[in-house]
């Protein structure tokens, strides 16, 4: 019922509603970007919520021309809007390619992007089924600095059917995105960080498969691959031990 939900807001001249047939999330987001007229583009997925002060606190961080993306913290909420937990993992500013390669800490609905980034480096890739935000953050990180507001200004909704629940597909897309980024921007991340990122990724992939009987063989192979990149990577050794002991 998007049309009926949006209609009351169309009396405000600042609000424009653009409709197109469903062609996937990347095409929808790119259409929004191309319709946007401002110096900055901010994103908000349909199931998430912004706090009223979000943009007011983020926009001043673009004072430096080197900053291309400003993000913030978020809290998880359930389907009914009740708070589940804060997402309190570490955040990073400045040149963040290496940190991003290890873990995507930029929540999509927390982000504001300088329009110049998009004009210079392009919008979302429409050939990717998942991870389009991870790909664009890596691509932008090789050319622009990131900054953040250290406060939970977004409520990130978690529900049973959302796309990010498809863990195996998410990892496979992530591996593809990482590989292509490193091929295109080989100087963006040092070799030690690369090895750590691959160990972290393959160990996490193995963790996601270890719980099912049919996934144990693949999990073991991924743990070995992780250790091939970083033989001292403790989470992978712990995963192997749990696999051998049958611990889920």
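Sequence proposed for the structure above (248 residues):
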């Amino acid at each position: 019922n998007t049309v009926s939900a949006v209609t009351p807001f169309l009396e405000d001249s600042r609000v424009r509603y653009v409709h197109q047939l469903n062609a996937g999330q990347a095409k929808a987001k790119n259409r929004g970007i191309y319709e946007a007229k401002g110096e900055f583009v901010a994103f908000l997925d349909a199931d998430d919520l912004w706090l009223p002060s979000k943009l007011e606190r983020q926009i001043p961080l673009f004072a430096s021309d080197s900053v291309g993306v400003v993000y913030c913290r978020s809290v998880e909420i359930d389907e009914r809007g009740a708070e589940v937990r804060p997402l309190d993992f570490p955040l990073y500013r400045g040149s963040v390619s290496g940190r991003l390669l290890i873990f995507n800490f930029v929540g999509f609905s927390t982000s504001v992007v300088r329009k110049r980034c998009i004009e210079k480096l392009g919008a979302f890739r429409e050939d990717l089924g998942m991870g389009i935000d991870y790909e664009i953050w890596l691509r932008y990180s090789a050319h622009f600095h990131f900054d953040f507001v250290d406060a939970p200004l977004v409520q990130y909704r978690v529900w049973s059917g959302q796309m990010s629940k498809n863990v195996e597909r998410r990892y496979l897309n992530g591996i593809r995105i990482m590989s292509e980024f490193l091929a295109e921007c080989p100087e963006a991340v040092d070799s030690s960080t690369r090895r750590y990122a691959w160990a972290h990724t393959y160990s996490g992939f193995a963790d996601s498969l270890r719980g099912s009987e049919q996934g144990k063989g693949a999990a073991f192979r991924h743990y070995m691959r992780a250790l091939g990149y970083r033989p001292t990577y403790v989470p992978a050794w712990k995963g192997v031990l749990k696999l051998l002991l049958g611990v889920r």
